[in-house]
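Quick one, T. Sequence first:
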Amino acid sequence: MCRRKDREDSLIEPKSQVKKCSAHAEILQQNEERTVYRLRETDGEVRITSYPVFPGIELAYHDVHAPSYRLAEQGAAGLIEIQHCREGRAEYCCGGEHYFLAPGDLSVVRRAAIEGEVEFPTGHYHGITVTLDPALAPDCLSCILQDVDVRPSVLAEKFFADSECFVSRSSARVEHIFSELYAVPAGIRRGYFKVKVLELLLFLSALDVAHEKHGYTAAQVRLARAARDALLASTEDDVTISALSQELGASPSQLAASFRGVYGMTPAAFLRAQKMHSAAQLLRTSDRTVLDIAGQFGYDNASKFAKAFRSVIGVSPSAYRAGADSDSCAPTAEKAE
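Structure tokens:
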């Protein structure tokens, strides 16, 4: 049991909250509360908004419009990452198997176990990552929650007993914890993050780790990626699973299961989503008219394009362009008002 004075000392933030970024990160904004940075060496846009919460514990919002990115500290020993996917899809390779996060999913992964780059199969991702460093995180987190043991080292023993990556599919309990983190009023942000991180650790301490296997083999991933390449190279708009399976020499059921496992949707839905995300990038980065962009993707009718765009992106093309500068899952003062 920790004495009160020891407990208070262990939970005081470091005097300097300035985050040191790696050489392949460009700092866009930095103060004592947060650091916003963009990753270089990526084929697209990757922006991360990072908040220190406790010593050794950081909460970061990831806004990704890219197929992949390289981890800043690839071999960092002991680091634990807890991820929540809000939009899009993320892929991690651990122990020779591939794990995928869909909207609403949560994962717990040992950073050093991630092989290669973090992939984003649909080229689009928004989500939260809570990073724990057991060597720096205060053991006295358990003194605040005296009924449970929420030390990061104990969580590591629990979640990595059989695998280096644990995935929990979308549920009301996971949604309850994370949903409020995407719109936190600026005035209470620091204290609120502390409360929510403690709530998350409490939730994980009670979570049943006896779960179904969510990993996919390298062969399944290769088959899905081959189907994706064939889809993107085709000049037809209605390529079927049957046609793809004949071209790739796989059974339709095998191909359909592998494709949905990797991309989370059917080939037809994937093709439509890719078009709309490409259109969204043009809306963010160019001054071309909506009708001009619609024509590039095969739409000669603005209303049909708007309907397809809304079905994937969630808002109309004009509304998306108007708010393109705030295409982020990180909370802002404007969101809170």
